[in-house]
Design a protein that fits this description.
The structure is a homodimer.
Chain A: H1 9-13, E1 17-18, E2 26-30, H2 43-56, E3 63-71, E4 79-89, E5 93-103, E6 109-120, E7 128-129, E8 157-163, E9 179-185, H3 193-199, H4 206-211, E10 217-226, H5 230-236, E11 241-251, E12 254-263, E13 268-278
Helix pairs in contact in A: 2-3
């Protein structure tokens, strides 16, 4: 009898190898078919991969506090190079700049993604939740939805909408951009910073809801602020997160989206914001 | 009779000179005493200066869409070098990485600030305001406040609080982090992208309000999403902006702050977010 311990798809997708001969902080990875979106990888997996490089970097001090990812171009299927550089280390914060490169049509490296990360030392202080978790039914009371369209990455998440699921009719009758849903990795996996970064980006483009029209859309830039430390992530374990997303303004081909993520106990784990391109 | 056309303090602070001998996108500037904060320049003026380099860059295409600034270390009084690099240009977006450097104690350059900017081509599309401006009294009905403490940059802004002014007693009795105020440059100056970027950062640390306790605090990272194009900024002119700021979570020495900025006509000009260090 053989026991198979298969690696979780998220961990497989986040696998990076460092090449010391190439210089400190240079990693190579490979896009994951398990997290493929329409024209490239799911944006959340790219964000998680950048953060993973920081987590693995031997010079890292502290835990993730802030992550900004700019999607300059879609990654092509295949290998990529990731450069992570700590440009300044202070007493309580460390500042990182990152980029992902792939060979372009002529073989020369092309920047597909840029990012900045701040890691920080957390300490016990006075604290307060100024945006408490909304009162919603428990995860078990909310039915899981089947993926709304054929993108492989949707299979990697269990989503149980509370409100703001995709419209049943694409009839331009939308009136709100608010979504609330319980969610976690599928199969379930203990939460860590990289998984949390990816979960901050699982929401459908708000224009689809607000407009009840499915138009081309893609994240241009996302920022995640981590309010949880490793202890709180460990407590959250494989539990569900409540995610809430809404847009603030749709104008001239771009809208923004604000996100909050709480664990089942009502602790705020992360807040996030993104600016999204849409076309119609 | 002589007519004096004095330069606005904001324009003086944003003056950058490019040195072609130093390479494309390298600029030199000088910190401005007019925007001095407690231990360095007002964060908003640093954000505006980074954006100014992009605005001046001969290769720029499109208008600012997104700006993220990471405050790695306080700038010292004196000259600085600013590097702005367009790393990828697409059909509708252009991605920039930026940094500010100053000579450290040993004379070697030290990174004080990193940033990313996305510029984009705006086009006419369907649009909607999903966070309408709150109903508040007009600017003339709100009294201007005198600067609450001795920081020179506070003299550069006219602020007329609607709600959420600083507490009159620092007695730990705070119960909200919400502020709404009318504001503009002082003296009045026609709004542009750089001025708007700076205005996104004028709010006092939310912990001071929520806690009614004045503790050391400083922005670690700020992101501004520009929803207005140049036309709308020109229409706004020297009018007031309504700024609204609130925190979502205070935990372990860091809190976040979400911001919306509308013009007097109720058009959303920008949304912004920041993560702030606090100590107590």
């Amino acid at each position: 009898m053989t026991t198979h311990h298969s690696i979780h798809p998220l961990d497989a997708a986040l696998a990076l190898s460092s090449s010391h001969s190439e210089g400190a902080g240079q990693y190579t990875g490979h896009t994951s078919p398990a997290y493929w979106n329409m024209v490239g990888p799911f944006g959340g997996i790219t964000a998680a991969t950048l953060l993973q490089a920081v987590m693995q970097h031997p010079d890292r001090l502290g835990e993730p506090l802030s992550l900004t990812v700019n999607y300059a171009g879609a990654l092509a299927e295949g290998p990529f190079t990731l450069q992570a550089t700590p440009v300044r280390t202070n007493r309580s914060t460390q500042h990182w700049t990152l980029s992902i490169l792939q060979a372009g049509a002529d073989g020369a490296p092309v920047v597909t993604t840029t990012a900045t990360v701040v890691t920080a030392a957390r300490r016990e202080t006075w604290g307060a939740a100024d945006t408490p978790m909304p009162q919603v039914p428990a995860p078990a009371q909310c039915k899981p939805v089947q993926p709304a369209f054929r993108s492989e990455w949707l299979q990697r998440y269990e989503m149980r909408p509370v409100t703001g699921a995709l419209p049943e009719q694409w009839d331009d009758s939308g009136d709100t951009s608010l979504s609330q849903l319980w969610m976690r990795d599928a199969p379930a996996r203990a939460l860590d910073f990289c998984a949390l970064a990816a979960l901050a980006d699982v929401f459908f483009p708000r224009v689809w809801l607000r407009r009840a029209r499915q138009v081309p859309a893609g994240t241009v830039s996302i920022t995640v602020y981590f309010h949880a430390g490793a202890d709180l992530l460990a407590q959250t374990g494989t539990g569900y997160l409540l995610g809430q997303a809404r847009a603030q303004e749709f104008r001239n081909g771009f809208f923004d989206q604000t996100v909050q993520l709480w664990n089942e106990a009502g602790a705020m784990l992360a807040t996030s914001h993104q600016i999204v391109y849409y076309k119609e």
